[in-house]
Amino acid sequence: MNSQPVAVFDSGLGGLTVLRALRQRLPQEDFFYFADTRFLPYGDRPETFLRERGVLIAEALARRGAKALVIACNTATAAAAEAIRASSALPIVAVEPGVKPAAALSKRGAIGVLATTRTLQSERFQRLVSTHAAHLRVVSQACPGLAETIEHAGPDSPEVAALLANFMAPLAEAETDVVVLGCTHYPWVAREIARYLPEGARLLDTGEPVARQLERLLLGKGVLGGGSGKLQLATSGNPATLMPVVRRLWGQSLPIEHWEPR
Ligand code: DGL
């Protein structure tokens, strides 16, 4: 047991979809959630920037007393997970698009992947597809603008609907029966996405598998449990601006502090 918090980070509030699964599975952990909103969206930023930023955030979170780190951002994983693992002594779990389970579940042999431009262009993603889904039709759809529009305009806004109408057309046309939500912001609009898919189509996010992996990791390191479900939120942006967004997405108000990793 170890009462230090588990740190979780994302470019913004997408990682809250992962945090929800973590808290459900691990109620005896405390969590420190960092939204790097100053640099949202990560999806349009160069890989070198994301690598340096990711390493800096991991170092600062370790100094702040985290006992483990969850990279709750597919884009940060794609660009920076290797560099973070190489430079940090923290136990680390990193989300990545669920291409492997999607390939196993698809009956029609056609899967869709929704993610940021940066994630889809990464070597890591190309490898994931060639290892697990080379025998399938994979429709990889970049969704520029979607993550920040979910935060700024809201999941059920006309702005989100307009973006999805555009992004979902190729997936609907290919009759994909399993769609990977390859960005942690997208579970917030799962219902809106499902409208474009055939009856019975599956949407896969990675909250639950990441929670199981974190549990195994903490257990293996002898630091599982010891907290009391405490949750602290921080942003590199303006807490006052983020507060109503948290309330809308999380369903309740939570205090947020300003924090700058250094
Ligand atoms: N939530 C992040 C992800 O999982 C990315 C959103 C962004 O572009 O910042 O990829």
Topology, pairings included?
Blueprint: E1 6-10, H1 16-25, E2 31-35, H2 47-63, E3 68-71, H3 74-87, E4 92-94, H4 99-105, E5 110-115, H5 117-121, H6 123-132, E6 137-142, H7 146-153, H8 158-173, E7 178-181, H9 190-194, E8 202-204, H10 207-220, E9 231-235, H11 239-250, E10 256-258
Parallel strand pairs: 1-2, 1-3, 2-9, 3-4, 5-6, 5-7, 7-8, 9-10
Bound molecules: D-glutamic acid (DGL).
Mean pLDDT, all residues:
97
The biggest sheet amounts to: 6 strands, parallel
Main structural class: alpha/beta
Identify low-pLDDT runs.
none
What is the level 1 CATH name of the largest domain?
Answer: Alpha Beta
Distinct ligand kinds: D-glutamic acid
Number of domains: 2
Please provide a written account of the structure:
The protein is an alpha/beta fold and 262 residues long. It folds into 2 domains: 6-95 and 207-258, Rossmann fold (3-Layer(aba) Sandwich), CATH 3.40.50; 99-204, 3-Layer(aba) Sandwich (Rossmann fold). It has helices at residues 16-25, 47-63, 74-87, 99-105, 117-121, 123-132, 146-153, 158-173, 190-194, 207-220, 239-250, and strands spanning 6-10, 31-35, 68-71, 92-94, 110-115, 137-142, 178-181, 202-204, 231-235, 256-258. Helix 1 links the parallel strand 1 (6-10) and strand 2 (31-35). The longest helix is centred in the N-terminal third of the chain and has 17 residues, at 47-63. The radius of gyration is 18 Å and the shape is globular. 46% of the residues are buried. The mean pLDDT is 97. The structure holds D-glutamic acid. D-glutamic acid (DGL) binds next to helix 3.
